[in-house]
Write a structure and sequence with these properties.
Number of strands: 7
InterPro entries: FF_domain, FF_domain_sf, TCRG1-like, WW_dom, WW_dom_sf
Structural class: mainly alpha
Number of helices: 21
GO molecular function, one term: transcription coregulator activity
Protein name: WW domain-containing protein
Strand order of the largest sheet: 4-5-6-7
Keywords: Repeat
Distance between the termini: 146 Å
Radius of gyration: 56 Å
Strand content: 5-15%
């Protein structure tokens, strides 16, 4: 149902009609007015002009906000947008008013003009120089020390120096630095030439002053000054000279003096020359410097060092030095020079490689399965079937060895290919279990990686793991093992026993030598500290002797006289 929106007029009572006017209703329902005298009709009520009624507040229309900004001009045009901002931006208008008041000498307000930005200095070009080799470019320097490149042909300036003129600018900078250095040298030379006569005159005055001081020292100066450094009764020239510190030359001790002191102390304490190093080793008795090793002993000790650290004989010398694992071992210093160490290392490498080859040949002759497993590790892939692998590598020695039949070869090949498909964690666990199965007499902490036991080499669990992962794992496991059992030593042949006994003797001799050297170092350190203390005491005595007090020579003479009286 529709609801009427008609609202009665809020106007007051209508005024009466003027004489001659009558009100009528039209067929449409509208009221109109007719004047019989003038035959005039109108819809507007004729009458006296009433005061305009106050406008009534209209209800808030929610749709009126759309038409509120309909008169705002379109701001897509920059000119229109600037004009609109200039008209409606009250902040700029207020700033303009404040600036206008300041210009007319008005009051600055509470901020006292601090809202205005500080004036920036104006930088101007000061000098210019042509860039060599980059004409017509020039380098312009400004008043504040900045510079820019300018091209007068293009009338373009660049704060960032272009790449094509950078070389010329660098040449200019180098030239300027050299000129500054030459200027400083020239100025120093001129100052030195000017100061030379003045220094000569000053030296002459110092000589005269020293002579004058010797003449002025008398027996009456204690009476005059009472030895007080702050006494004002002293003559001005004398007080000035005595108060100045004396520039005495420091006493210097060279190596000969130290050697002499050490020799004196060594003779006093009954030490051998080798124990305090008197600087003349050619005069030392035999054995004074400790036990000496023969050349063969030093070489064997260094080779034992390489064997103990399980050095790979196939790795280069630079890698061994770069690792630095052998530096902390005392056997590293038995050879004096790096050249000698490298020569012994090369000799050890040749011997070690030859021994490994012979040992590998013996192992392969004992068990022909070892070279075949090595061939599988190098050549076999899951992409090749057994027939293809056999046809492709039939000329290899392990493939036509009569001690192995094709059935066994195929069995091991298929087992190896199937294990390659397993995850790496499973392969690691299998290898760990295999290592635990090997007895300690075969695999121990003295087993090198290059000569592993055949029980390990012929197992498919060993070759299934990638060597990059397997070798570090093996090295860590071998280091965690213990030494070989004593029963294994009893089974050694005579040559191995002899080699082991010689090594034990060398190690014992090295231990004794290290003990003797450590004792000598401790003795030398104590004696050197004692010698330094004695030298410092003598130096202090010399300094005390060179210090001349303000009392002059009389105080020294009195001290010497008292010392003689006491004696």
């Amino acid at each position: 149902m529709l609801k009427s929106t008609y609202k009665p007029s809020a106007n007051p009572a209508l005024p009466p009609l003027l004489p001659g006017w009558t009100a009528h209703k039209a067929p449409t329902g509208h009221t109109y007015y007719f004047n019989e005298a003038t035959k005039e009709s109108t819809y507007k009520r004729p009458g006296a002009d009433a005061p305009p009624a106050p406008p009534t507040p209209q209800p808030q229309d929610p749709h009126a906000s759309f038409f509120q900004y309909s008169a705002v001009p379109r701001l897509s045009d920059p000119a229109t947008a600037n004009a609109f901002l200039a008209q409606y931006d009250t902040t700029r208008q207020r700033d303009a008013q404040v600036i206008g008041q300041h210009g007319r000498g008005g009051h600055r307000g509470p901020n006292d003009g601090r809202d205005r930005p500080r004036p920036q200095p104006v930088d101007k070009p000061k000098s210019k120089v042509a860039i060599p080799g980059c004409e017509p470019w020039i380098l312009v320097y400004t008043k504040y020390g900045r510079r820019f490149a300018y091209n007068p042909v293009k009338n373009a300036s660049y704060w960032r120096i272009p790449e094509k003129v950078m070389k010329g600018v660098l040449d200019l900078d180098i030239k300027g630095i050299r000129e500054k250095v030459e200027g400083v040298k020239t100025r120093d030379e001129s100052l030195h030439a000017e100061m030379a006569p003045q220094e000569l005159e000053a030296e002459e005055q110092v000589d005269l002053g020293s002579d004058y001081e010797e003449v002025e020292v008398t027996d009456d100066e204690e009476v005059e000054g009472d030895g007080d450094p702050d006494d004002d009764n002293l003559p001005a020239s004398k007080r000035q000279r005595t108060e100045e510190p004396a520039d005495e030359m420091a006493v210097e001790f060279d190596e000969n003096d130290i050697a002499y002191q050490l020799q004196a102390m060594g003779e006093e304490y009954g030490l051998d020359p080798g124990e305090y190093d008197d600087g003349r080793p050619e005069n030392w008795p035999e054995g004074a410097e400790g036990l000496a090793f023969s050349e063969s002993d030093t070489k064997e000790l260094f080779k034992d060092l390489l064997n103990d650290f399980s050095i790979n004989p196939y790795s280069p010398w630079e890698k061994l030095i770069e690792d630095g694992r052998i530096f902390d071992d005392s056997r590293y210093t038995v050879l004096a020079t790096m050249k000698a160490r490298k020569e012994v290392w090369e000799e050890w490498g040749r011997e070690r490689i030859q021994a490994l080859k012979e040992q590998r040949a013996k192992e392969e002759k004992k068990d022909p399965k070892i070279p075949y497993m090595a061939l599988l590790q190098q050549k076999a892939t899951p992409k090749l079937y057994w027939a293809e692998f056999r046809r492709k590598y039939k000329k290899e020695n392990p493939m036509y060895d009569t001690s192995l039949n094709d059935r066994d070869r195929e069995k091991w090949y298929r087992e190896y290919i199937n294990r390659l498909k397993l995850p790496q964690d499973t392969l690691k666990k299998d290898l760990t279990s295999l290592l635990k199965e090997i007895p300690a007499r075969v695999l121990n902490n003295q087993t090198p990686l290059e000569s592993l036991p055949s029980q390990l080499l012929v197992d498919v669990r060993y070759i299934s793991l990638d060597p990059k992962v397997r070798d570090p794992m093996l090295a860590a496991y071998i280091q965690s093992l213990g030494p070989p059992p004593k029963a294994a030593e009893a089974d050694e042949d005579e040559a191995a026993k002899k080699t082991r006994e010689e090594r034990r003797k060398r190690e014992n001799a090295l231990a004794k030598r290290e003990h003797i050297v450590a004792e000598e170092k401790r003795k030398q350190k104590r004696q050197l500290e004692f010698g330094k203390a004695a030298l410092r005491e003598e130096e202090r005595e010399l300094e005390r002797a060179n210090q001349v007090g303000k009392k002059g020579l009389q105080s020294q003479l009195l001290a010497a006289q008292e010392k003689s009286d006491v004696q």
